[in-house]
Amino acid sequence: MSFVLLTLALAGLAAASPAPIRRQSITALGQSTIDGFTPYTWYASAGYCAPSATLAWNCGTNCDNNPSFEPIASGGDGDSVQYWYVGYDPTLGEIIVAHQGTDPSEFESDLTDADFFLEQLNTNSTLFPGVSDSIEVHNGFLAEQALTADAVLAAVQQGMSQYSTTAVTLVGHSLGAALSLLDSVYLPLHLPSGTSFKTLNYGLPRVGNQAFADYVDANLHLTHINNEEDPIPIVPGMFLGFVHPAGEVHIEDVGEWASCPGQDNPSTQCIVGDVPNVFDGTLSDHDGPYNGVTMGC
Ligand SMILES: *[C@@H]1O[C@H](CO)[C@@H](O)[C@H](O)[C@H]1NC(C)=O
Q: Which residues form the signal peptide (predicted)?
């Protein structure tokens, strides 16, 4: 680290230290925990592969790294509807649901041009019955999630019955992470209460408001991993009312994976402190690598 950067980092710490908020401390993840994410990272990356390839599970490296996967359904056209797939991993004993991400440079401008707004999650009460009116999310993400909601739910129901499992894991990178997070709120509202869910997101942008983040913290098991100076996880900005749920893991430049407790942890070991604005970001960090996996098909 250069002297100037070190000085800036120390200045940031000095400015943050008098804050009255007490936070849990940041801890480094061990290698076995990091390696435990990797099958899901390959699944998130396979979300970029065409439906014909994920349905046959012959999508190349991404598929080869989870060789026992049994696909159930896939869809999307990669244009007006992002690709998605659902299947069963017999090693993990879990149904996997994955959504495709998108081109990072287009995505960044979409999320910084403010040509979007926070919309009530239960606008379509068929999809999100009974959730509080105070919960609001990005209108574009909400519209996209609705396009695949019925097909994803049907495939998950089929898989749970076919493979006698009650475990469902949702994965995604980039826009796919946002869709996966909305599916993680949607699916439990339509599946038996004994179903266990977890969500693993990579390069997740902010999806909703404070009430949404609080709902996610109270009801989901979310881990969202972001890489070095990726600017996507800091947009849309907090000044627009967007808040990240807890569950952040930040891959630092030094290679350490920091578990960052709380919502939008401001530490320089976490994305909000590390990338104060998009001009400090490095867009190529968005695709990884995440423990050796670079997103894409
Ligand atoms: C709600 O979403 C479902 C599933 O996408 C759709 O079939 C239905 O038409 C939507 N209802 C309204 C009122 O938009």
A: 1-16
Is 164 assigned a catalytic role?
A: no
Among protein residues, the one with the nearest Cα to ligand 1's atom 7 is: 150
Cα separation, 158 vs 160, in Å, equals 6
Q: Which residue out of 119, 122, 124 has the highest number of ligand 1 atoms within 8 Å of its CB and is therefore the one to mutate?
A: 124
pLDDT in tens, 56-89: 999 999 999 999 999 999 999 999 999 999 999 9
Q: Is 174 a catalytic residue?
A: yes
Options 174, 184, 259, 267, the catalytic residue: 174
The Cβ of residue 114 has, within 10 Å, a number of other Cβ atoms equal to 10
* Active-site residue, 125 included: no
CATH code of domain 3-287: 3.40.50.1820
Q: At residue 16, does pLDDT exceed 70? A: no
Residue pair 204/263 in contact by the 8 Å Cβ criterion: no
The pLDDT tens digits of the residues spanning 280-290 come to 999 999 999 99
Q: Where are the alpha helices (DSSP H) in 95-138?
A: 104-112
Question: Is-cis flag, bond preceding 261, omega within 30?
Answer: no
Evaluate if pTM is beyond 0.90: yes
How far apart CA 245 and CA 262 sit, in angstroms, is 7
Structure tokens at 35: 């390696």
**How many A from CA of 175 to the centre of ligand 1?**
21
